[in-house]
Amino acid sequence: MPTQCCVPLCTNKGGHRFPKDSILRKKWIQAVKRGEHKWKPSSRSVVCPNHFDDSDYKTTTNEGDPAQIRRLKTDSVPHIFPWKSALTPSQRRRRERGRKLQATEDSRSAWKDVGANVEISLEDFEQEPAKKMFLVVQPVTGRFVKEATL
């Protein structure tokens, strides 16, 4: 008789039993997040297929034929839960573009801050015109690294 999925907020019936391998079993227990102190799944506890995606399933049998029954790969761990927002590939790309853009803007503002704080005196150049001075500054932090002359 099928049992209800043990994932909180899920009411589906039937699914995959917890693995017997102790390390993988612990990963499943941590992923499910029951919230009960030291909760242990019973021999009948299951996690329904809604908490796995297609890449968690075998596509062929051991003989190489296409799989007719969906079986989990041996290292699959449930990872789709109501408390985690599942992002589509386009949402993931958009989020990554936003992070890259923010990093670029941060480095640009660091350079602006550095430029605003640097003072150069023309007297230095008038006294020794053959020598040129320059500053080496870290791009992200804007910290002064060294001063050099040519």
UniProtKB/TrEMBL annotation:
SMART domains: DM3, THAP. Pfam families: THAP. Keywords: DNA-binding, Metal-binding, Zinc, Zinc-finger. One of its GO terms (molecular function) is DNA binding. Residues 91-100 have a biased composition (Basic residues). Residues 85-108 are annotated as: Disordered. Residues 1-81 form the THAP-type domain. InterPro entries: THAP_domain_protein, THAP_Znf, THAP_Znf_sf. Gene3D superfamilies: THAP domain (6.20.210.20). This is THAP-type domain-containing protein. It comes from Petrolisthes manimaculis.
